[in-house]
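[Automated response] Your request has been received and processed.

Submitted sequence:
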Amino acid sequence: MAKEGDVIPAPEKEKKLPQAVATRAVVTREVIFSGPLPPPAILRQYESILPVSAERIFKMAEQQHNHRMHLEKEVIGGDVKRSNRGLICGTVVMLATLALCAYLGKSPQMVYALALLVAEMGSLLAAFLYVDTKRRKERDDNKKLLERLGQPTQAQESMLENKEE
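Generated structure:
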């Protein structure tokens, strides 16, 4: 036995004791919703935190809806005005060109009148075909998008209505 003041030599090899392994599991939960309003369960949780929060959320959604509708009306109204101005300008240019063709047709410059008439008709045809092609492509793109989203297209809806009758 060691007495007071004796030096005790360190052991040659220390035995390593197994350390306790701490594990921790992290569980995360993600809730996703789309649209201006949260699901009812989440809405109730908001309401439990702040009693008037559900009313505020509904009011915010209504304001957003009204704002969006106002913007859409403005955009559509602007598009209609722009379209009408384009039609008026196109008509004026066409009538002026036809008047010039009639004037040149009475003079010895008949070749120029014919060339101008062909150019005018060609440009009108090109404009019509461009707009028609663009609209057709837009409709096809929208139809493909609706099919990918799983929503019935107008043709599918009419087929369903015919089957029901």
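Summary generated for your ticket: Residues 40-148 form one domain. DSSP finds four helices and no strands in the chain.
If you did not submit this request, please reply to this message.
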